[in-house]
């Protein structure tokens, strides 16, 4: 029997008023329906927002530590269910089981981190020019927060938005990506069983154009935090701006790695493969442009091809599989069309790029990792986010040229350099236009206690995670007290 996911509104699991559902498919085995999710309407969204609005007053009045206790409970429940949640994630969006377990463990750690935030300081005392007055700042929640998330990190991204929203006293209406809504529901079950007051956290599935856009336009939603494509993000930003709502957008990347002539080749190769192909390249921080010094270009390319050839591709539930399928048929077709376009534009495909249909791979949306050589900075392969396992290799001759190439992008999320030269490192830290710069480490990856976000088109310029999250989820109130 197919498993049906309900919305969670005002503390109750409910079907959409219209009763329509959508299928969520296993990308490793397209005949398997992982679950049916509600195809919700505007009236369902109105009910969720009304519940969040009603719950806000009592929730904001709780102490930070009391709110934190709820998050600690969610963390404990989720920790006990880690394997089951991870398995659902692998079945629903394809990443390998170890990666899915790692992501779920990160979700648990995020919950504990933000639970602790309920006990930390929220303001500063500022000396008043009036000696008989006390002046200080405090922070207040902004109200009801709309959370809209993508499918590629269906546990970690919702939690790194929902947990800080709640700890600082906001209530939440959460719409996950349809492709990963069953996994998201497993996360919400942990919240519901932790005994949160009704209406504090509401979960509603449905089309982006209906529920997502409905959140962006809703007059009772005071802040929207979105992670996804730059196309949808821009639209959400415009809608929020028009009605004066606060918004936070984390979008795409076209992340470069620079391999200098003095790099530790072993380290650079491992990090490039992991950064580009883990999660089938479907990370906003995935490595997609590989800039290599001419002196080591050929040897690096040959070794990259050799190692990529050894990666085992298959169903992420199988133990020895290193890379799973694309998350959906649409995603696979997008990646294949970028590969065709790369060839048409004259880049040289030196490895992979085929759709894989041998044996049981025929049941899913599998492609071989692709490596393109001699990519020109003007080519589509070097400019657009592909969100798949595709590397564009570009040679360079000087550090100045490498940085110019690396910065030649409308995105600015993450970037790496491999070098032993401290001068190169410092130049890279200073001049690289990216929110996350990593030295001798892969482009993908950020620790949860550190700020995360991009520059240029990658972000609306705010930051998520760590203590930086307080900036979006609260407003500063300046207080002046005189006896
Ligand atoms: P989309 O932008 O297509 O979707 C993201 C979310 O927005 C989904 O929940 C989607 O719902 C919803 N949505 C779709 N249309 C609208 C709309 N008109 N109004 C409001 N909401 C809408 O992105 P993907 O899910 O395809 O995710 C991939 C993208 O996410 C990549 O570009 C990637 O770079 C980016 N990303 C960025 C990260 C970062 O931190 N910078 C991290 C991870 C991913 P539905 O699923 O129902 O369509």
Major β-sheet, in short? 7 strands, mixed
Q: For the CA atoms, what is the radius of gyration?
A: 23 Å
Give me the secondary-structure category.
alpha/beta
Gap between N and C termini? 68 Å
As residue ranges, the low-confidence spans are none
Any ligands, ions or cofactors bound here, and which? NADPH dihydro-nicotinamide-adenine-dinucleotide phosphate
Strand order in the largest sheet: 14-17-18-13-12-20-21
The mean pLDDT is 97
**How many E-type strands?**
23
The helix content is 25-40%
- Report the sheet-strand fraction: 15-25%
What is the general shape? globular
How many distinct helices?
15
Descriptive terms for the model:
7-stranded mixed β-sheet; globular; 5-stranded parallel β-sheet; single chain; 483 residues; binds NADPH dihydro-nicotinamide-adenine-dinucleotide phosphate; alpha/beta
């Amino acid at each position: 029997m197919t498993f049906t996911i309900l919305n969670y509104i005002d503390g109750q699991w409910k079907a959409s008023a219209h009763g329509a559902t959508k299928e969520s498919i296993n990308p490793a085995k397209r005949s398997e329906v992982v679950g049916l999710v509600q195809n919700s309407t505007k009236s369902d969204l109105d009910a969720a927002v009304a519940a969040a609005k009603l719950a806000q007053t009592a929730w904001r009045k709780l102490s930070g530590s009391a709110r934190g206790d709820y998050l600690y409970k969610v963390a404990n429940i989720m920790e006990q269910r880690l394997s089951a949640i991870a398995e659902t994630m692998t079945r629903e969006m394809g990443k390998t089981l170890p990666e899915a377990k790692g992501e779920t463990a990160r979700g648990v750690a995020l919950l504990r981190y933000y639970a602790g935030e309920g006990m930390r300081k929220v303001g500063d005392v500022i000396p008043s020019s009036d000696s008989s007055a006390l002046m200080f700042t405090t922070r207040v929640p902004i109200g009801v927060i709309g959370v809209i998330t993508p499918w590629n990190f269906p546990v970690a991204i919702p939690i790194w938005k929902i947990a800080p929203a709640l700890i600082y006293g906001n209530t939440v209406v959460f719409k996950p990506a349809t492709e990963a809504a069953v996994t998201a529901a497993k996360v919400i079950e942990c919240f519901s069983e932790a005994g949160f007051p009704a209406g504090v956290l509401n979960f509603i599935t449905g089309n982006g154009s209906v529920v997502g856009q409905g959140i962006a336009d809703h007059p009772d939603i005071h802040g929207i935090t979105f992670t996804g494509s730059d196309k949808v993000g821009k639209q959400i930003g415009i809608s929020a701006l028009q009605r004066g709502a606060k918004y936070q957008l984390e979008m795409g990347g076209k992340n470069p790695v620079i391999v200098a002539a003095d790099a530790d080749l072993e380290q650079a190769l491992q990090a490039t493969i992991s950064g580009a192909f883990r999660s089938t390249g479907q990370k906003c921080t995935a490595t997609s442009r590989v800039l290599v010094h001419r002196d080591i270009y050929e040897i690096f390319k040959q070794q990259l091809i050799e190692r990529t050839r050894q990666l085992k591709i298959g169903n992420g539930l199988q133990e020895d599989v290193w890379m799973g399928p694309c998350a959906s048929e649409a995603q696979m077709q997008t990646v294949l069309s970028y590969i065709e376009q790369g060839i048409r534009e004259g880049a040289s495909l030196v490895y992979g790029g085929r759709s894989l249909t041998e044996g049981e791979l025929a049941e899913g949306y599998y492609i071989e990792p692709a490596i393109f050589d001699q990519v020109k900075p003007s080519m589509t392969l070097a400019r657009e986010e592909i969100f798949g396992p595709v590397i564009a290799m570009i040679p360079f001759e000087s550090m100045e040229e490498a940085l110019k190439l690396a910065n030649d992008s409308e995105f600015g999320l993450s970037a790496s350099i491999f070098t032993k030269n401290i001068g190169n490192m410092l130049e890279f830290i200073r001049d690289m236009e990216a929110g996350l710069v990593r030295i001798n480490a892969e482009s993908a990856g950020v620790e949860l206690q550190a700020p995360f976000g991009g520059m240029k088109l990658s972000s609306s310029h705010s930051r998520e995670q760590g203590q930086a999250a307080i900036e979006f989820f609260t407003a500063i109130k300046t207080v002046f007290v005189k006896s």
